[in-house]
Amino acid sequence: MPxxxxxxxxxxxxxxxxxxxxxxxxxxxxxGLVEAGLTYAAAAAFATPRRLALSIEDLxxxxxxxxxxxxxxxxxxxxxxxxxxxxxxxLTIDQLEVRDDKKGxxxxxxxxxxxRPAAEIIAEVLDSTIRNFPWPKSMRWGAGPLRWVRPxxxxxxxxxxxxxxxxxPFEIEGIKAGNTTRxxxxxxxxxxxxxxxxxxxxxxxxxxxxxxxxxxxxxIQSEAANLAFAAGMEVVEDRGLLAEVSGLVEWPVPxxxxxxxxxxxxxxxxxxxxxxxxxKFFSVRSPKTGRIEKFITVANMETVxxxxxxxxxxxxxxxxxxxxxxxxxxxxxxxxxxxxGEWLDALANVTFHNKLGSQKARIDxxxxxxxxxxxxxxxxxxxxxxxxxxxxxDLRSGMVGxxxxxxxxxxxxxxxxxxxxxxxxxxxxxxxxxxxxxDDVPTAPVSVAVALADKIDTLTGFWAIDEKPTGSxxxxxxxxxxxxxxxxxxxxxxxxxxxxxxxxANAGTDAADLLSFFHDRLKVxxxxxxxxxxxxxxxxxxxxxxxxxxxxxxxxxxxxxxxxDDGANLIQGFKRANNILSQAEEKDGVEYSFGAxxxxxxxxxxxxxxAALDSAEAAIAPAMAAQDFAAAMSAMAALRGPIDAFxxxxxxxxxxxxxxxxxxxxxxxxxxxxxxxxxxxxxxG
Amino acid sequence: MAEKPRSFQEIILRxxxxxxxxxxxxxxxxxxxxxxxxxxxxxxxxxLGDRAWAAAYVQPSRRPTDGRYGENPNRLQHYxxxxxxxxxxxxxxxxxxxxxxxxxxxDASLHDIRFVEDDWESPxxxxxxxxxxxxxxxxxxxxxxxxxxVGGHDCRPVSGELTYGLERLAMNVLGxxxxxxxxxxxxxxxxxxxYGDIFRQTEEEYSRHNFDGADxxxxxxxxxxxxxxxxxxxxxxxxxEKSGKRIIMVHPAYDQCIKASHLFNLLDARGVISVTExxxxxxxxxxxxxxxxxxFVQTEAGGYTA
Lengths: 685, 306
Known about the structure:
A: 25 helices, flat, B: alpha+beta
């Protein structure tokens, strides 16, 4: 069975798109082939900056013949209907078959779809794959109508079997498939004729192109490690950068260079960020000093001077960048040492939002709120307020102006330079956290107070001016801010009455509405942790649902209880009790909520339920008061047996009205006791 | 491999010769203040419509906010761009570009030349394209773009645009660390002039002007006037009574659009435009650019046939 090789050779494909594009190529082509009736043994796709390639092994040489039947009109149908059927099938009346059907005799048409050669199918599938390729962004070029990520230049589409290689006849907008490709842009000349995938990969390597991205990454990693090791240093690992750089080169050549002494006084994050962002350099750290003292750049080129010219050029660019950074840093330190007043004053002239005032006004609000929250998070209110007042000072610094991603981080350096204590300085760095779902949550009390105050001020502020997120639109990242508050509260186990805090933060905020937004975010957050939304709903209905730590403790206990056999069955018993009771209450127009008396009990099971409810109530009430949800719920789950036994033995709707009423009041006790724990009526299933 | 050039102007001359040899019409700079070579009507307007086009030119460009009083090694409020625009973009445009680098003394076998993703967008021109910034040993030396839309119009056929930041490129080729130290003419000339001999003082003057001197009241007024004038010029009926011809005043109107754009840049440098206003101003310039583009495709050069 033949193997298939496809290569789509283009101008430079953005690094970030390559991996996905190789996967898409594989999926679109193999899906298309399979749908058309071909099978294959294995497929693998590859990407370099200038090509996407796909290798398919053991493809069937042709698709199988298919028999297809179509039912037509009845034999006695009007002539027009029969004619129409003949037209649509392309058959004549004597080619139709007559069969007995429920409604009489009916025409049937049978088609034989013959098998088709693989080449024909491949050409069709490749055409539609190229035309419909899901690039994140694609373009046209020249005068043609074709779209690709960048201009597409040549295509290999080659079937190889024991008899040799055949180019699949295929042409798209003037580009004809062939069996040639090109090697490295500068290190290889002319066309390369390929015979199958193995030959393709081997010849590319000779032409200074490593086809496999992971091989390029491995080569960069090990060569970079060797360079660093030889200098007694280590490369700072950065998987993201490694993946990106692997997509920027076909023939990686790591080169190591020094960082001039005059820059070594810069914070390592500054050096690292500047090198990574602008130059895609890896940082090389000295284990002795802990500083970043060298860099590694990955060239796409081998030169006779072993990269000397390249390194020299890169050094020059780096030195210009770091000179800028140093200039900013030194200026910034001067302002910081003078107390950062210049920046703080300037923040009065920076608008945060035209309805929410300046950054300075915002900082004043955050400082007040941080001091108020401080006692609940175990922080000194004076420290929390101090930290909040300087946490955003670095927004006006030169360095953050140049590298916005260093906000906070520089704030910490500058706060220390200004003579602030470490906990205050740390808050400048950490108060933006957590930024994403996997970002670390601050734990130091002062940082937690400022982080909460910052986010809550933003949320209540935008709520008050009615700028809430809608659908996919969340320009002020309010969902992220809410999730940040949720994680800060939960992961630090804080007991904070949010509704109250919202009210204090901004009197114009609809605290209930904002709280329900929080509850929605919480559901998403807890869903990822395996807690169902109906479990959360059952807990939200309880008092103090704005204390998220309490709420989640309750939800976790309920979730755990529902996972037990007793818990799951108790729910059924509870629902049955609740249904009977609700129906009776509706029918009778009264509420059965009081006065169940064991003396009217007739059956043993009924008396046993009375006893069980008494002991459950006695156990649950103190457990709830102590917020020991697990104990409360296990006491509740223990009711499962008595409730089941009761329903098994006793008919609630007795003819004796006294007995009936007593039993309904008994059911009401089940409801009352169970809903002390959570609103079980909201549990689904 | 060509011998290394020795001065800034030699690099410009070699680019001019090279692109002339490749069949481009070598145009002269546009005689107005623009922010980039793209604003030259030879690029913005000529990238519209289906007429083939090939031009190359130097364009003095102004970015008022980049003024550094001549002190920064490579930031200037007035600098030169070299611009090449070819429609439809030829299949070998990357090779042609690399040929131009060889011409000015960049030996591809010694350097690391890379095409790194960088999509171009001009919110003021309502234009965007896909392409790269070209790196030479880690330094960005050019912008390479396939225009997809200009003034809100799809580009069919697509123009290929090359923009060389001349000072930065030349500093790299000539091995100069500070732009002001760069030889402008041949350093062996009887009167050898450096870049700084010509531009240090003007950088100082314009930096002061851009940041403190320019009269913002006047700038705001001029912006409005340019905006109105652009709209007024495009409001005329196409048939001209005097000549009896069909004449749409696209270029005069577009001049006003360019003017508005530069006035906006000056206002921005003077720091009198707030963040929210900024978007509104950009939108107003874009609206003018779009009006001009709409009008240009109704002209002969824009592919209009009666």
